[in-house]
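Dear all,

This email documents one entry for the complex benchmark we are building for the journal club exercise. For each entry we list the sequence lines for every component of the assembly. Then comes the predicted three-dimensional structure of the complex as a token string, followed by one or two observations. Please use this as the template for your own entries, and keep the labels exactly as they appear.
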Amino acid sequence: MTDAVITAGHNDETEAQVAERAIDEKACGFWIYLMSDAIIFALLFATFVVTSHNTADEPGGHTLFRFPHTFAETMLLLASSATLGFASVATAARQRWRTLTWLGVTFLLGLGFVAMEVLEFYGMAVAGAGPSRSGFLSAFFTLVGTHGAHVSVGLVWIVLLGCEVGLRGLNPFVASRLYRLGLFWHFLVIVWISIFSVVYLPGIL
Amino acid sequence: MPTSPHGGEVTIKPHLVCVVPALVLTAMPFGLVAAGTLRPTQTLVVIGVAAIAQVVVHLQYFLHLDLKPAPKNKLIALCFVTVMLFILVGGTLWSMFDLNYRMM
């Protein structure tokens, strides 16, 4: 990713204005990406709801999902949303090390979430309830797995951005990347709220 | 946008303000499912309402979404709709043809 973007036809702008416009445009573009991602998740939710009863006479969510596990995952993600918010506050206050600290905490919380999800998937697969077992399980693994993949990418992003903050400090472009990371992460937490409300809790009920 | 890179007044308070309703709106459906006091349909309604409320809370406090009109970008909106239709129509055709193939 380069910092300088789309400057043709605006020759009378100052450098700061150019930078601000570039950052605005990136934020807008990232919103559009998030909306397209929202459509993908919406379709996966629709698929899940359609197939949620097609368990092929195998165990459904009631026996497969574990309440404390889901609750712990939810708490990890909610906490990570808050700590990333703290990181953005530290960034706005130009506090580099506090930004790094909160990014680190967010990374650990996110890593905990992904680890719990991998454990859950592994446990289900070992118990013979893998994605090929039934339509319900196919849709479940696709939906929750897609979300988990997104969170994993977010973790990589946090590490890379942490390196950049550490090496380059908090210039406006780095700060704007942190802002977009925040959009991405909070969006994923919103998707998880939908997942535990549509997949896990009705399954356990 | 309090956390925008363009500066402005920024405090930690709105994030703390958000965490409280988020926790309450999470604890409520989880608590009801654990307790099992209500009938399933009633519990499902509560889960749905709490989820929608929590999404709104997150959009407002974490993603800083508001209803101010933005002057931007008919072209980008158009491109977005194109991509959206491509995903929806293409994905539907793909899955339905695949379903057909598997049902044969």
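Observations: Chain A touches chain B through 44 residues (CB under 8 Å). The mean pLDDT of chain A is 89.
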